[in-house]
Amino acid sequence: MKDEVDPRGDDVWAVGNKHMTEDAGLNGGSMTDADWKQLAGAATNLQQAALELAGLPDPIVVVKPGTKIAFEDADWGDSAKSVQHNVDQDPQGVRDLANALAQHMADLAAAANKHDAATAGQLINDLDGICESCHVKYWYPSQRGLINSIKKNSGVDPST
Ligand code: HEC
């Protein structure tokens, strides 16, 4: 996850951030053919990492034994052990969410190949939420209440 999914996500955002419009869309006007190609390639790369995650046999091990995960040592941080416990409770859910990420990236690669800035921009903006949907279920479910209250306070529908 950390070694494959995260850096490939950054590759997608790198193109998106470089060509962001004022309202956080993707600026088709400044995208060169090479940029579109780079975006399609980054999306396909991330799609493959997600498919690999979705294809892991039981038991799915997301953290290498003996390694610590981000924020594990913080008071509020969740441990690798608790993540593994969450995964063992519902491994099919991990596959479903990984497949959802793969589909999202297939759609992004298709939009990039068509040079469709409106669709690609929307998909890049929604990517964060796809990552978070899995993290909040498997990584830090203890933070769900806090996240929902932040969303509520900033006028965002907590169910999204
Ligand atoms: C199918 C589930 C799933 C999806 C989708 C997912 N992640 Fe994760 N991610 C996890 C789990 C489980 C952990 C906690 C275990 C760990 O830290 O490796 C995690 C941890 C992380 C970490 C912390 C790694 C560390 O040092 O402990 C980062 C960074 C991260 N994810 C980035 C991303 C990004 C970016 C995306 C979207 C492009 C994404 N993830 C999508 C399951 C997922």
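^ heme C complex. The CA atoms of residues 7 and 58 lie 25 Å apart. The mean pLDDT is 92.
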